[in-house]
Amino acid sequence: METDQRLQLAANFLQSAYYTVTRRKRPQSGSAEWNKHRRRILFFVLGLYMLYTIVQSLYDIRLAGDFYTNLDLPTDSSEQEIKRRFRRLAARLHPDKLKGNAPEDFETGFVSLKLAQDTLLDPAKRFAYDRFGTKITMHEHGSLKTFREYVYAGLQDSLPEYVGSAIMMIVMNYFWLPKWGQFWRYLAFASMALLELYLLTHEWSPPLPLLNATLWLQRRLPNLLPPHILPFQLIGLGHKILFSLNIFISRLAPPDAQNGNGLAIPQQQEQQIQWIANAAAKMDAETTGLLQLGVAPFRGNKENVQSLRRGMKDGMVLSALRNSPEVREIVAKKLERQRLQANGNH
Question: Distance (Å, rounded) from C-alpha 177 to C-alpha 171?
Fold first, then answer.
């Protein structure tokens, strides 16, 4: 919800700035022209948010590291390269080399290097680590030996997360997200689930064009992008993109489908809102004419004229709105709905 509010604030600011620069008379809020501009600005804002999500996630992957980056090795390193690299690093971090005065962080570093080497030297454990991350190397999986055992164990550990995500998706689509775009949200979720299942159970290597593009970017942004992406890191990135995509689809819904239950605003209420907007515009024009007459004695003193004009105009508009029976009726209905919702929550 906080992310959604920030995106709405960004869209409001950009739309206001756009009208300030390009328009002397702004379109009325909710009009067809205003809604068209709103969707375009939202598309731009959501696209930037999607790009930010991807870049931030890649940067987080780089900061977190993995067993390969701990040993400063590529993902296709051989057994001999892993052993040789471990010996070089262990010579600097082994507690015995420091004569028993090794700081705690040095001992921790040596233990992490040993865990990385032991995992990568075991083909089945290495296959599982690439797909499920560090959790598959924990002690409760010490009895696992084969590729199949590791995959089954990893899927069992991940099953509650998958089920929880599916339930949350259904609940959000039913109670909160608009019905508009529901098909595409479910399609994105199902596509992500199939991709994840494939990555967890098969050998995977990126297509050559994608690999070349990634290497080109990584060479130019070495402090921002990770040197490689393992399947479990790619899955985590996919989850964040899926979340952003759900926001993207929901925010692009037409105005009459923005309600959580997907229902349009009732016609009667829409007519009342339109009547208020028209009445406000009419009163604004009338008060402007009256103010021109009222400030005649003050001509020549700019500050006093502006102050008097603001006060009279605000007072007349508020007075007219408060005395309007239609406005009172709408406010009463709104207060009644809030009271019923509050009673329902209790």
Answer: 9
Cα separations in angstroms, 278 against 257, 272, 329: 24, 10, 17
Buried b (16+ CB within 10 A) or exposed e, 201-213: eeeeeeeeeeeee
CA distance 173 to 166: 11
Q: What pLDDT, on a 0 to 100 scale, did the predictor assign at position 175?
A: 76
Assigned token pair, 69: 């980056």
User: Which of 16-51 are b and which e, b meaning 16 or more Cβ less than 10 Å from the residue's Cβ?
Assistant: eeeeeeeeeebbeeeeeebeebbbebbeebbeebbe
End-to-end CA distance of the chain: 23
SS3 137: helix
Q: What's the pLDDT tens digit per position in 186-215? A: 898 889 889 888 888 888 777 788 778 888
Give the residue among 135, 126, 171 at the shortest CA–CA distance from 156: 135
Instruction: Find out whether 151 and 224 touch, Cβ atoms under 8 Å.
Output: no
Q: What is the pTM of this model?
A: 0.65
123-132 vs 147-175: helix axis angle to the nearest 10?
10
Q: Which amino acid is at 274?
A: Q
